[in-house]
Automatic annotation (TrEMBL):
Family matches, as Pfam families: HATPase_c, HisKA_3
EC number, as in UniProt: 2.7.13.3
Reactions that this protein is recorded to catalyse: ATP + protein L-histidine = ADP + protein N-phospho-L-histidine
Annotated ranges, domain Signal transduction histidine kinase subgroup 3 dimerisation and phosphoacceptor: 231-298
GO molecular function: ATP binding; phosphorelay sensor kinase activity; protein dimerization activity
Membrane-traversing stretches: 52-71, 83-102, 109-127, 156-175, 181-199
Name of the protein in question: histidine kinase
GO CC terms of this entry: membrane
Top enzyme category: transferase
Ranges of residues in domain Histidine kinase/HSP90-like ATPase: 339-426
Superkingdom field: Bacteria
Keywords tagged on the record: ATP-binding, Kinase, Membrane, Nucleotide-binding, Phosphoprotein, Transferase, Transmembrane, Transmembrane helix, Two-component regulatory system
Length: 427
């Protein structure tokens, strides 16, 4: 009756700044759920695809402005007004080219405002230096479109409105027929600005809806968990009030019967039956308490509790049982470890019931990569072939519990005529 163990073992927000007057760091932001994080990833991917569809328009606009500038007078050059045209065209072309390549450098509100201001100033400069043809219309209207696509409504209105007013002033001072030119230029700015704003509003509405759906699913899941927890607590109370208390009363009565049997010197066989009944009642009471704890969310017994289980079985069930641990011990999923613990408990109970006098061995094997295996085997005892006897409900429940966590369980006669129970679950 000895027990031994052996073996090896893209956001539109400014970065937050700390307030020195507070003298302490701001509290950490609440953790984002995996569902909301996944929704944000989908939103970013869709935003990238939508902006990619607008890239050809950026290239077309840039090409039209560049060709018009090179074929107008003064053309880009290195002296005087030619140099000014070159610099204005460069300041306009670089951001537009980056937008067309999908590498818009503005990642914060401030940087986007600065870039769009540069594009707007360059557009107005081109219009003022070369007041002819396409350059009267396209540069500023393109800047207006980019502004409404990339900025919130207030800064977009401020920059685009200012640019449009300055464009009207420049055209009134520089072109020969200002009314027609101003009308067409302002109309194009309004059409492109409204279109860009509608595109942005549609995108933002879709993003908000997706995030709200993710938050709603999180709330529904939390409510479901809370309801399940309340139901488990109710069942735990009922189980404690009915089953655990009944078993406690039965244990007290059996203990009294045992003492009476000892006092009256009844037949030894009857004393053994009473003693065995006391042990089974205590075992059932412990299991009932574990079930109540599991329903209440207490820590479930796992593989770390197998060694104490083996020691108790050797002592209380009068078994000769040995525990072996192979490989490096590592923690596993609680429900999977609980299923293995229950399997070992059931197997040792069956050995005590149906194979008295046999030797049992429990092996915990961690050497199978992403799985953990447990084997409980015993030699042939007085009724070894019946080790799976009885109604089979215990072994059936063990198999179902292991399969629910993605594992496998089997039981049957071993080659030496004993009984073997093998279980394996994901680590």
């Amino acid at each position: 009756m000895a027990s031994t163990a052996r073996g090896g073992a893209e956001q539109e927000t400014e970065p937050a700044t700390a307030d020195p007057a507070q003298g302490a760091q701001a509290p950490a932001a609440p953790a984002v759920s995996a569902r909301i994080a996944l929704a944000q990833v989908r939103i970013d991917q869709r935003r990238t695809r939508q902006l990619a569809r607008l890239r050809p328009l950026s290239w077309l606009l840039l090409a039209a402005v560049a060709v018009s500038a090179w074929t107008s007078s003064p053309a880009p050059g290195l002296t005087g007004r030619h140099l000014a045209v070159s610099l204005a065209l460069l300041c306009y072309a670089v951001p537009m080219a980056l937008a067309g390549a999908g590498r818009w450098p503005g990642h914060t509100v401030r940087s986007r405002i600065v870039l769009i201001l540069i594009v707007s100033v360059a557009s107005l400069t081109l219009t003022g230096l070369v007041p002819s043809g396409i350059l009267n219309v396209l540069p500023v209207s393109g800047a207006v479109m980019i502004g409404f696509l990339r900025l919130d409504l207030r800064p977009a209105l401020l920059i685009s409105g200012t640019s449009t007013v300055l464009l009207v002033v420049l055209l009134a001072l520089t072109v020969s027929h200002p009314v027609e030119t101003i009308t067409s230029s302002v109309l194009l700015c309004v059409v492109l600005g409204v279109t860009a704003r509608l595109i942005r509003q549609s995108r933002e509405g879709q993003e908000r809806t997706e995030l709200l759906f993710a938050e709603l699913e999180d709330a529904w899941e939390a409510e479901t968990r809370a309801a399940a927890g309340a139901e488990r607590a109710r069942i735990a109370r009922e189980l404690h009030d009915v089953l655990a208390q009944s078993l406690s009363a039965l244990a007290i009565q059996l203990e009294g019967a045992r003492k009476l049997a000892e006092r009256d010197q009844v037949a030894p066989l009857l004393q053994q039956v009473i003693n065995r009944s006391v042990e089974l009642t205590r075992e059932g009471l412990n299991e009932a308490r574990q079930a109540v704890g599991a329903l209440r969310g207490d820590r479930l017994p796992g593989l770390a509790d197998v060694a104490p289980l083996v020691e108790r079985s050797a002592r209380d069930l009068e078994l000769s049982v040995e525990l072996s641990v192979l490989g490096t011990v590592r923690p596993g999923e609680p429900q999977a470890e609980f299923a293995l613990y229950r399997g070992v408990q059931e197997a040792l109970t069956n050995v005590a019931r149906y194979a008295r006098g046999s030797r049992a061995e429990v092996v915990l094997d961690y050497r199978r990569g992403d799985r953990v295996a447990v084997t409980v085997s015993n030699t042939a005892g007085s009724a070894a072939a019946q080790a799976g006897g009885g109604g089979g409900n215990g072994l059936r429940g063990m198999r179902e519990r292991v399969e629910r966590v993605g594992g496998t369980a089997e039981a049957g006669l071993s080659e030496d005529g004993g009984w073997r129970v093998a279980m394996e679950v994901p680590a």
